[in-house]
Amino acid sequence: MSREAANDRIEWVxxxxxxxxxxKRELETSRPFADTLIGICLHVEPKTAVLCSVLQAGGAELxxxxxxxxxxxxxxxxxxxxxxxxxxxxxTMSVRTRAISSTS
Length: 104
Known about the structure:
Elements lengths: L2 H13 L2 H13 L6 E5 L4 H12 L3 E6 L6 H4 L5 E4 L19
Parallel strand pairs: 1-2, 2-3
Helix pairs in contact: 1-3, 2-3
């Protein structure tokens, strides 16, 4: 999947999750997760990207791990955090949005 296709899928999901959109607006104001690291182990896909953006709006720093078989690489590259495969000990890419390819 290309980066543009990943963006399109994430935006499609975002428009179909109105409860999370409302929650994001609320969390942007209240920021209950400021200075909090939240670890997440989920399938790394467009729905996860939307959930993570809501948590980040609330001030959370995220560490994400997912199964190599269910990680959508181009979606993972959109995260503003580190995405680990379940078999990784440390990330192998050092950029603002770091991702580990499920095919490596």
